[in-house]
Amino acid sequence: ILWLMGEYCEHVPKIAPDVLRKMAKSFTNEEDIVKLQTVNLAAKLYLTNSKQ
């Protein structure tokens, strides 16, 4: 799900930030690959949706 959000975050600009907020709460307990995808989503959101 994180990968999909990262790939298509510009198509779901209202949902992707909520997914990122939810993942940030459990970031330290996640596997490395999940952490990587979370950071990837955060970077893509920052670049494509920097107005928020």
Structural summary, described in words:
It is a single chain. This protein has one domain (2-48). Helices cover 63% and strands 0% of the residues. It has three helices and no strands. α2 runs antiparallel to α3 (32-48). The protein is globular and about 30 Å long. The N and C termini lie far apart (22 Å).
Key phrases:
52 residues; mainly alpha; globular
Summarize the entry for a quick read.
The chain is mostly helical and 52 residues long.
Biggest sheet, open or closed, and with what strands and sense?
Answer: none
Task: Please report which band the strand proportion falls in: under 5%, 5-15%, 15-25%, 25-35%, 35-45% or over 45%.
Answer: under 5%
Any idea how many domains? 1
Structural class: mainly alpha
The total strand number stands at 0
User: What distance separates the N and C termini?
Assistant: 22 Å
Our count of helices gives 3
GO biological process, one term: protein transport
Membrane topology: Peripheral membrane protein
Domain Clathrin/coatomer adaptor adaptin-like N-terminal: 1-51
Keywords: Membrane, Protein transport, Transport
In terms of topology, how is this protein built?
Layout: H1 2-7, H2 16-25, H3 32-48
Helix pairs in contact: 2-3
